[in-house]
């Protein structure tokens, strides 16, 4: 669908668009009649659609530079004082990749922790603790994951939960109420800490710090 508008355009605005055809060499104002239309673009044989409308004017197509450049993987900067657009096609994406990777690992830890908690509920309800060994092994698994991504605090929290489960089973088997209650206190406190930590690190606002490691051959 084509939308037709009469606008006053300046080079300061037109300069933000790429175009096929002539380029205005200096700032000037003109009353022009243009058409706005959503343009399809094919990049290396792959069709795609720009997120902004383009301008059709006197046989030329003015495409939003930011939309096109970001689609091609560039970072776009605009210096309004100097009317300069900066395109950076060679930039460091490691932080973005690192963040995506870290979040996936934390999501896995959160899912596994929820599964373990779900399996523990009927054990506590029925006071049947025959399968606590598997619970300990599963906590050891997610503790190792936290350690592998350099989150030693989370790993230690999970280790305390694991130790509490072992103490809980021992206290129950020996009918030692003190050990049983101590185990429950340790487990409950650290389970709360783990949930808060996971909630924070899975939030959109959390910033992951990229850690460079030297790989020794």
How would you describe this protein?
With 217 residues, the chain is of the alpha+beta class. The protein folds into two domains: 3-88, no CATH class; 94-201, Up-down Bundle (Four Helix Bundle (Hemerythrin (Met), subunit A)). Helices cover 50% and strands 22% of the residues. The chain has six helices and nine strands. It has helices spanning 11-14, 65-71, 94-126, 132-148, 152-173, 177-201; strands at 3-10, 17-19, 29-37, 40-43, 46-49, 54-57, 60-64, 75-79, 84-88. A five-stranded antiparallel sheet has the order 1-3-6-7-2. A two-stranded antiparallel sheet has the order 4-5. A two-stranded antiparallel ribbon has the order 8-9. α3 (94-126) packs antiparallel against α4. The protein is rod-shaped. Residues 1-25 and 211-217 have low confidence and may be disordered.
């Amino acid at each position: 669908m084509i939308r037709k508008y009469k606008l006053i355009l300046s080079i300061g605005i037109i300069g933000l668009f790429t175009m096929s055809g002539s380029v205005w060499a200096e700032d000037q104002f003109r009353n022009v009649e243009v058409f706005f239309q959503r343009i399809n673009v094919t990049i290396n044989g792959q069709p795609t659609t720009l997120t902004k409308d383009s301008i059709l004017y006197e046989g030329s197509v003015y495409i939003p530079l930011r939309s096109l450049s970001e689609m091609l993987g560039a970072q776009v900067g605009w210096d309004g004082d100097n009317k300069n657009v900066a395109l950076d096609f060679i930039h460091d994406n490691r932080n973005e990749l690192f963040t995506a990777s870290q979040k996936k690992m934390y999501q896995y830890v959160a899912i596994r922790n929820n599964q373990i908690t779900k399996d523990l509920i009927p054990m506590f309800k029925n006071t049947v603790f025959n399968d606590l060994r598997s619970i300990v092994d599963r906590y050891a698994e997610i503790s190792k994951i936290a350690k592998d991504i350099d989150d030693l605090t989370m790993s230690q929290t999970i280790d305390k939960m694991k130790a509490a489960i072992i103490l809980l089973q021992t206290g129950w088997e020996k009918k030692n109420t003190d050990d049983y209650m101590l185990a429950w206190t340790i487990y409950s406190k650290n389970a709360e800490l783990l949930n808060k930590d996971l909630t924070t690190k899975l939030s959109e606002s959390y910033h992951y710090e990229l850690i460079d490691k030297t790989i020794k051959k």
